[in-house]
User: Fold this.
Amino acid sequence: MKAKIALLGCGNPAQKWHLPTLHELAKRGAIEFVALCDMVEAIATASGKQYGVPHYTNLDEMLDRHPDILVVDIVTGDPTHHTLACHVAEREKHVLVEKPMALTLPCCDLIIDTCRNNGVRFEVAENYFRMPKQQMILKLLGEGMLGDVLRVYFMEPKRQVPFEAHVTPSGLGRPIAGFGRTSGMCMDMGAHRLSQLRLYAQSQPTQITATVKKYHSDPNRVHEDWAHAMIEFANGATGIYETSRLGESQKYCQITGTLGSMLDTDYFGPEIPLRLRHGEAWRDTPVETERRQIDGVDVLQRIIVHGQTPLIYENPFRDYAIDDWSVGHAAEIMSIANAALHDQPAEYALGGRKDVEMAMALYESSLAQSAPIQLPLKHLTNYERQVHEDFEAKFGRKIDARLN
Assistant:
């Protein structure tokens, strides 16, 4: 039996990743891609014709016309995630929702509760940790090759365009969000990085201390363009997260353990710069990749770390015309497909809530003059309260009546 999957939202992320990946998975017989929907008729029509599936501009019409849809892949702007995910769940369809899971933790919990009450599963489209390189890094950590993790560091590469030499920095202001496609750097790419830091640390965060700044002069841009956070984990590891649109791009990732480390200045590239300790010395450890062409696509087959005992990662999509980047998207789609078919929790699911929780603590710390925020969060934060208030002020309705 194959999962019948529909796509909701045919904007840029869908065009670049979700649509081609759904098409390839369906072509190879892993799923059935049955329909798509976008509120812009021209986009829906063009996408439907390109991928050979029925297209709609109304979600309920699509679900009514295709009652056998099992999963809906929601690829829309951040402010709509919780509303659309709940609507899909209430139609008793399983949910795959893009990251970040929702704008605030109450919105995340609304998705969780609605899915549970309607007997459906949900998954969050966190693709980075599912990519081959990241899977091998997590395998290395899980096997203890780096020993106990001491510190994890991620600097997000964002360049300031155009460069503004003279700006007056400010903190988070009101409105707290613009409620456009994304909800701030610490929620957009930050959701990826906070996920990776937590998974690299192999532990859960217990405290976050952060500061968030805005350096751009455009008053219409309400989101941050620089943030720095210190994250304490339960196992004693420390995480450092920085994202910046100030000046030149700075790309940097480091994992330091008692037995080895990785210092990666090109974490989008395929190389794994692994160094392991041999006595008092540190030595480069060879990492080999095997690849082949499938329908003109350079497809990774496996990664081999040549340590004392070779460690191997095999790409589960090595027979598909799917590149390294889209392996993550294929894996998230198959995660919710299998969860729906076998009535089991999806692979990441509540991990998406943890990412949002870390971001909420980061923002809250900055609002509180960089006071440490303890995790897990037990109450609605001031930041979340402001998001809910500003949402109502912008749209003339509460973010969701069920939250009151």
Q: What stands out?
A: Residues 324-342 form the longest helix (19 residues). The first strand starts at residue 4 and ends at 8. The chain has a mean pLDDT of 94. The chain is about 35% helix and 25% strand.
